[in-house]
Every structure is written in C-alpha cells, then in structure tokens.
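Dear support,

I submitted the protein below through the web form. The confirmation email said the job was done, but the results page showed an empty box. After a refresh the structure appeared. I'm attaching both so you can tell me whether what I see now is the final result or a partial one.
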Amino acid sequence: MDSLLPPTHGFTPAADPRPHFWGIAPLWARVLMVGLLYAATGWLSVHFTLVPGGPSMLWLPNAVVLAALLLSPRRQWLWFASVVVPVELLVDWGTFSVPQALGFAATNIMEVLLAAHAITRLCGRVFFLQRVAHVGWFVLLGAGLASGLAALMGATLHTQHPGGLGFWGHWLVWWLGDALGLLVLTPLLLDLWGPQVRSEHQHLLRSWRWWPETVLLVALNLLVFGDSVTGLGGPAFSVVMVLPAVAWLALRHGTVGGAWASLWTASFAIMLTAAGSGPYGGGALPRSDLLLQEFLLAVVLSALGLGAFVLEARQRENALRLFQRAVEASDDSIAIADAQQPDFPIVYVNQKFLRSTGYGADEVLGHNCRFLSGHDRDQTGLVAVRQALERAEPVQVNLRNYRKNGELYWNQLTLAPVFSDRGVLTHFIGVQHDITDIKRTQDELLAAKQALEIQNQELEDRVQERTRELELLSTTDPLTGARNRRFLMDQTALEIARAQRYGHPLSCLLFDIDHFKRVNDSHGHDVGDRVLISMCLAVQTMLRPADTLARYGGEEFVVLLPDTDAEQARYAAERIRSAMQDMPVSAPGLEAPLRITVSVGVATLSVLQADADALFKAADTAMYRAKEGGRNRVEVAGA
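What the results page shows now:
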C-alpha cells in the first residue's frame, strides 16, 4: 500500500504515458518534424483538394498539429502551434494574400488548441481512439465543435464565395474539409507516434499485412471513382461498394484500420473527382464537391465507430476468456448464482464443481445450491449463509455437503456478493474448498486429545481464550478494529521519547466525521457504526506499518505519524480527507450509498507541545478551526 507521505518520501509516481514521436526526445526536433509534415500535407491539400477559388475539401495539416498536442504536455502546446504561422504563409504563397494566410493560420491554431483542450479535459491526458466513448468525444469536440468554429472564421476571411456557395455554403465546405482531415489523419498519427496503446493490429506502416488489403482498396477506388483513368467510360461500381471494403479494414484492424481505409478513399475520391472523374465528377461545382464531402464524412464516421466498437468488443471477449480460463483452472469449486432471480438460481459452475459433486451441468444450472445439503439442513453455517444472502454481505462457513452418490464431504464455503457499477446487487459467487481430509484429521486428533486430557484442555482453552479477549479489549476498539485510547497514549509517549532522543519529527492528525449526528439520527446507529468501520478500513490501507490509527472518542480518530514533519503530515491529511469524500458507504436498508466528509487537524511535536496532551490539544484546536472554516478541510496547528 502507498504510505501517506508525499512523493518525495519514497512514493514513485507512474511513468508518464505520453510518448515522444518515434522516440524523438528533443522538443525542437519534434516541432521541426511537425512543421515539415504540416507543410507537406498543406501543400497537398492546397494543390489537390481545393474547391476552385474556395476552401479545401480535405485539409490535413491541422491533424498533424492536433496529434502532436494530444501526445504532448500542455506546456509545449504553444511551440507546436507557433510553427503553423510561418508554414501557413509558405503553403499559401501565391494562392492567398498575406493577410488571408495569417488569418488562416490563426484559424487553424484556434481549431487545434480548442480541440486538444476539450478532448483532454473530457477524456484525460491519455487519449485512446480505441474506445467508443473517446471516438465519440473526438468526433463531437474535434471534428464538430472546433472545426465548425474554425469554419466560421475561415468563411469570414474569404471575402468571395465561389460557385454561388454563399457564406453558409462556404462554411459547410470548410467545416467538412477540416473535419475530414482530422478524422482520417489524426488516428493514424496517434498510432504511429504513440506507443502507449498496444493492440494486436497496430502500427500499420510497420507491418506488411496491411498492404495487400490497401492495394485492393486502391483498385476498388479506381473502379468507383476513376472512370477517366480506367477507361471504362463510367463508374464500374456504385459508391456504396466502397463501404464494405472500409468496414472490412475497420473490423480487422480497429479504428486505425478504419482511418487508414478512409484516408485512401478520401484521397482518391477527391483527386479523381477534381479531375472530372467518378460519380461526382460530372456534377455542377461546387454542389458535387459538397455531396462528395458528405459521402466521405459518412464513410469516416462509420469506420471509426465500427473500429472502436470492434476493439472494445475484442477486449471484453479477451477479458471474459481470461476470466473463464482462470476460473476453470482453479482447484476450488466455483458457482455463481443470479441474485436478481427468485431463489438465487445457479447460472455458472466450473468443471471442478461438477467433478467434485458428481452432478451434471443440466442438474445444477437453474437450481438453488441447497440441494448439496440434502436433508441435513440443521447447520449453523446454513443460517449464516441465509443471513448473508438477505444482507448482501460476504460470509465464510464450513458446511456438510453431499455428493450425488450420497457421500458426505466437508465444504469450506466463501460466499461474496457482486454489485454492478451502480451499486445494484446482481450475483453471488461461491468458492467451495473441499476440507474433508482436513476435517477428518482434525476430528481424529481432537478425539485422541480429548480422551487423554479433557479437563486440562478445557481449562487451558478457557484461559487462552480469556487472555486473548483481554489483550484484544485492552488495546483495540471493539467496533472499528482501530487501536483504543489507552494504547494510543502509551504509544504516543514512546514515540515522543524516541523523537526527542533522536531529533526526529513527530506529527499527528485528529479528525472526525462532519455532521455525524445527522447520520445516526437519519439512518440509525447501525448505519453510523457501518460508516465508522468503513472509514477506519479505508484509512488503515493508507498507513505505513509504523503509523497508528486510534479511536480517540466517539467519531474522533487520531493518526500518529512518526518521522513525519508538518508538511508531510498536511499531505497525509489531505489524502485522508480526499479519500473520505470520494468513498461511498453502503449499508443494508440504504437506498443509495452515503457520502461523508471529515475535518482534519494537524499538529507537529515542538518544544511547546512536548507531551501527548499538548500535541493532541493542538491538533484538536486545528480540527475545530477546520470545522469553523466550512468543514471538509485540513487545518495545521500554528499555521
């Protein structure tokens, strides 16, 4: 478990998931590479995909910059954005005026920065186009919002709208051109530059397996759009014939395959249409160009959505197969019962269960597992199991069960509830461990021992049991399992002496649950006890072995932190406070999990706080300052 200390004290943060491009570490080299690619794709877009006198039908450069931003920390974004200005001037030289080129550069910078900021805010710094949700946000925020706003600026910069497009027609062509560029090229660049996502079909240009399919796709595009090239005198196939080929690549290779197929299709369709070829080449400009863009947009969206869906389905299938293999490989009998059906019917058992009990799957599935007990229903363990089922709680019991042939065997049953993401009970999973041999051996040894010294053993057992109870009662809070106040005071005295002797820092946290009385008044003391227990369990997982969690009184708790100064203790207190506000507490009878917050006071041993009482008093004062300041906060004594 991670300790409560800050990262400078032994905590190793996870490696940054953002890679460099192709292993290029220097920032200047990556900026230069992005600039060169921006210039190359910009030249291609200007010279091959422009509507006569108007915007590009497929604007690729913005995809280069967007991919760089998504793979880089925000502090480097302005470097990549700044390279757009000189390159845009170079690409537009001779085609547009300098003021127009500068306006286009500002438009493109706004588009990629807005898209990157919105996508990373909603999807996180690690962006996966292999997820359906991330593809949806990418389309909505990048190709939709950012490209749409950029198209407004671009259409405004164009003082003339060719072909009778008008302002909104011009805006639509611009929007679709930018959106298509982002959708077809960004996934490919993220795949080539970003080694953070490993899949079975990745890095298309590094594998020969893609090229036969690509050649077939090119041939199909020539047949559909290239009648002037093939000399067939008209399109050999309908444009609909392109969809199965693109879908095939998306199905086989996910979003990267869909983007790859879409890029080839868009490139050939636009260039051949511009040459007057294909089903859109003979139409009136720019109406035919707009129809082609709408067709390509439908192709790209279908490919990306289908690819992401297929990848997620494969991941779920692989996870399910792994789970099934792991369960089948278990040496214990495993059964899963449906908690949402009457009488909890069994819906799954592994092969070990069938071999152990002697029953067939058709004799088990759909039935309650009580048939294993036969007529031997008067067992304490069965009562505990029924109570656990009613309360949706885990339980472990030893049961007498019977195989199909009537043979008795002892079963150590561990039963646990399974909840959905929304906290709804869906299943119970039971793990059965055959302890017949262990039980038989235990019974034989116990019988022999009892026959030799029954009286001495009974007395010894009572003494040992009483001793354990007294030891437990003397140092442990019986409700929460935390240390009690007596143990805390003894331990604090030892730690103060050690801190003063060796000059080490010593801090403590004193916290309680905000508005805890409302919990007891509204839900009862049973729920209040559950809150205290859950809180202690959560806090205990965040402590180091040397730290001490103790119940100071009521809902007040103390964490004693040896070798911890004030700043480190404040960090630990913030971790506890944050964890508590994010921790739902479930209890029987509650319609929804409870949310709790805590107020924490922090104090560090000093000359003026040289004993336990002074230290705890300082922490208590700080805690009440936290409550007066609005609760759910941390206050440091003396700060």
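Response: this is the final, complete result; the empty box was a page-load delay. The longest strand covers residues 408-419.
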